[in-house]
What we know:
By secondary structure, the chain is an alpha+beta fold.
Amino acid sequence: MTTGTDYHNPDPILLTLFANRFMSVAEAMGRSLQQTSISTNIKERLDFSCALFAPDGDLVANAPFIPIHLGSMSFAVKYQMKLYGKDLKEGDVLMTNSPHAGGSHLPDITIITPVFDCISKDIIFFTASRGHHADIGGILPGSMPPTSVNIFEEGAEIVSFKIVDGGIFDRDGLLEYMIEQPSKYPGSSGCRNIRDVESDLKAQIAANHKGIQLIHAIVDDYGLKTVQEYMYHIRYNAEMSVRNLLRDVVQRSGTNELKAIDYLDDGSPIQLKVNINPSEGSAVMDFEGTGWEMRGNLNAPISVVHSAVIYCMRSMLDLDIPLNAGCLVPLDIRIPPKSLLSPSRTAAVCGGNVLTSQRIVDVVLKAFHAAAASQGCTNNLTFGAGGKGRDGKAVAGWGYYETIAGGSGAGPSWHGTSGVHTHITNTRIGDVEILERRYPVMLHQFGLRAGSGGKGNWHGGDGVVRELEFLEGMQVSILSERRTRQPYGMEGGGPGALGRNTWIKKPRAEDGDLPENSNEPKSTRNINIGGKATVWMGKGDRLLIETPGGGAWGVLESDSSSELEWDQEKPQWEPRGSFAERAKAQAAF
Length: 589
């Protein structure tokens, strides 16, 4: 089937059809990846994304996966295109995770596969998947060290590796990149669980191949010319939607200049000035005034900044369109060199992807007066053991990673949501049954943190409380924000509560907690470990994490009806997770 279509006047039915067909490709890739992976991170927490890219590397369509992945993967695809040129052939699959090459942080490994036309043998699309792997080496299990000061401490960095060359899987090369190279850095280990990582990478390769099969099916149905025409129509549709949004902002606010600033917990500013040209529907988004590159790991690569911006633009659109590269066409994003949003080649970045990105989103939404601040954090918890031994030889080990929900910010006509992953994360927490079965931990409590959301005419969502006991000694790390600066409210609304991380330590003689002949009770010690810490916790120690709430919108009035509405709207608990989903699916038959 072929159609002759005007570039700016596509058939609206075909436009919707192709948008959904392209999105269904990404959704099918995601289902394949989840079903064939084995790690908790990908199979249970769903910390992965799949997407479809144009021959020039621009994002075409995606399923609703992880926003921080989707906006930055285009940078990774374009980097590999520039590196390989026309040297790619059928059966080649590329692997990368370097922030210098379009990556976000090192645990997020991207697998890229070119899609070749069956007749001309030209590249007509790319399929790509990005997954967060629980351990890729570095100085601490989980590869998210709160104390890292350079990228070498965060694990294996891969600028470009042809993991499949002409259909042949290069396992020796994978082991070199994942085990040998990172362990050369003093104090660092290679990947502590290469079995899981290798298996999940193969699952990503298979997911990409699924996408290729589905793309070829669409081309067979409609012809390559029509398919690519509507690929560009969809991108143009997104571009015009954002241009209209920018014009509406000027009309509603009465100004074409927007400003906002917020701060990381250490005081580093993230500043934004937006200058909108209403006649063109374009905008300059200038981050001048943002703080310098940091010695720690809250530096955010440029690709992450673009991810946060494209997410905000898509979120403010009241239209059902795929998130794609067209959303960025009307925007001129300017990032000051040597800032924490444009760090140097060897800067530590593991926290920038998960924490600084949240603050960028808060700043953009604040500038557009769209919503109060959400928790502004992902509360990254890692723990594990093993790695490279003192003699330099690798020993068996493991690592676990999770992000913990909080409260979302309220808006001009809605309450914030309690206990959710906000903005650029969109992952879920692992099932407690799987957590306790696979790892030596016990979950003592996990629930909403009542009263932590900001108070206002529209309330902020509550954070959560999560307490784990460790059943054997292990290294435990927390990487978090909003521990010293509250999530702000808007229009007079109150801020959300600060987060807090507490080590509940059992008394031990070897730590001097139990002096001889002491009559003092053997009580536990509650130790505030701050927002970023790594601690060796002994058997029976617990970690209590209280996550931030979201900011409120509007002044709270004593006779406000929204208070009653808020109580009525609070959802009742219902089981969620893979076990609940499986039970629900079985009950449907």
